[in-house]
Amino acid sequence: MIDFRSDTVTKPTKSMREAMQLANVGDDVYGDDPTVNTLEKEAAEILGKEAALFVPSGTMGNQIAIMAHTSPGDEIILGAQSHIKNYEVGAASVLSGVGYHVVNDQNGVLSFDELKAGVRGENIHFPKTSLICSETAHSTGVVGALSTLQTIQKFAKAQHIHHHLDGARIFNAAIHLDTPVSEIAKTADSVMFCLSKGLCSPVGSMLVGRKEFINRARKYRKMLGGGMRQAGVLAACGLESLRVMRHRLNEDHQNADYLAAQLTAIDGLVVDMQKRDINMVYVKFPYDRDALTHYMKKHGIILGGYKGDYMRLMTHHDITRNDIDEFITKLRHFDAIK
Ligand SMILES: Cc1ncc(COP(=O)(O)O)c(C=O)c1O
């Protein structure tokens, strides 16, 4: 199957499977797993932070960060289209007991004016604003300017508010901005990034930040049941993600450019070029949705879901140029017979 739904569908590579087999392991809850320890050390170094924590998922990484940065009753500021707001089952209100102050994030970039206005002053009636959550690359496919994150960080610091970055696809963002990932990470107190998306690991995300923050985060991970034992078999894949797979992500971006160009060449199809920063392509088809999806599935191609009128297609390690050509050929055929 050629699966365009997401980069989360990537399978672990052959060298990941070999690395799993050979991984040196120990009980990570005791801090005894050498492979996890190496992964945490390398992740912290690459992101330019003091320490890192290996967590089972991006959602857990974000939620642990919120728990560690806030107290129950606080308010956090985040974007209307953000993953934390929309796709984490409202966890921050349950696990951290915080309220959400939602601001506009046109194309995935937080409105700075709304953000500023959202910070609570000192008043007996108000909750405390303790955290701003940003996201880049955003799941709209957009990478905001680095200067926007720098402005937020400067503002947050002046207001004594923490800044957490959901950087699930931070390496894709770094490619788009043509900047070291540490420059992006520098703009936030904590960053979560995923190993299990375009980086092909089967499981796992990293949370990075200051040592003292990560020590607290480690305890919250245990509280949530995320303390893993011989997790080195998974961390071995994570190391492959960091040492090998992150260096090929640009190929996915180039394939997305190619896919977008091929789609645009078909009459009546519209690609949203404002959302064309990473390995995502948002396309509007002039066809019946179910008929198209059903036809493609019958021909071995799995399509993504819709956001409004647009379907999101993603390129990744398991999609080649030939796969894209095959999809376009099938699409032209569907266009002719529909
Ligand atoms: C921007 C963003 N943040 C967080 C996550 C959560 O990651 P996970 O699925 O590993 O919980 C995702 C997953 O798609 C995401 O796209």
CATH superfamily of the largest domain: Type I PLP-dependent aspartate aminotransferase-like (Major domain)
**Helix fraction by DSSP (H/I, runs of at least 4):** 40-55%
Strand order of the largest sheet: 2-8-7-6-5-3-4
Task: Determine Rg (CA atoms, Å).
Answer: 21 Å
Mean residue pLDDT: 97
Terminal-residue CA separation: 23 Å
Name of the CATH class of the largest domain: Alpha Beta
Ligand inventory: pyridoxal-5'-phosphate
Poorly predicted regions: none
Q: Which architecture of the largest domain per CATH?
A: 3-Layer(aba) Sandwich
Query: What's the CATH topology label of the largest domain?
Result: Aspartate Aminotransferase, domain 2
The main β sheet shows up as: 7 strands, mixed
Would you list the SSEs in sequence order as H and E? EHHEHEHHEHEHEHHEEHHHEEHEEEH
Please count the beta strands (DSSP E, at least 2 residues each). Answer: 13
Quick structural gist:
With 338 residues, the protein is an alpha/beta fold. The chain has 14 helices and 13 strands. The longest helix has 17 residues, at 321-337.
Give a verbal description of the structure.
Strand 9 and strand 10 (280-284) form a beta hairpin. The chain starts with a strand and ends with a helix. The protein has 2 domains: 10-244, 3-Layer(aba) Sandwich (Aspartate Aminotransferase, domain 2); 248-337, Aspartate Aminotransferase, domain 1 (Alpha-Beta Complex). It has helices spanning 14-22, 34-47, 58-69, 83-86, 91-96, 112-118, 146-158, 170-177, 181-185, 211-223, 232-243, 249-264, 289-298, 321-337; strands spanning 2-3, 51-55, 75-79, 99-103, 129-135, 162-166, 190-194, 205-209, 270-271, 280-284, 301-302, 306-307, 310-314. With 338 residues, the chain is an alpha/beta fold. The model has no long low-confidence stretch (mean pLDDT 97). It is globular. It is 43% helix and 16% strand. The chain binds pyridoxal-5'-phosphate (PLP). Pyridoxal-5'-phosphate binds next to helix 3.
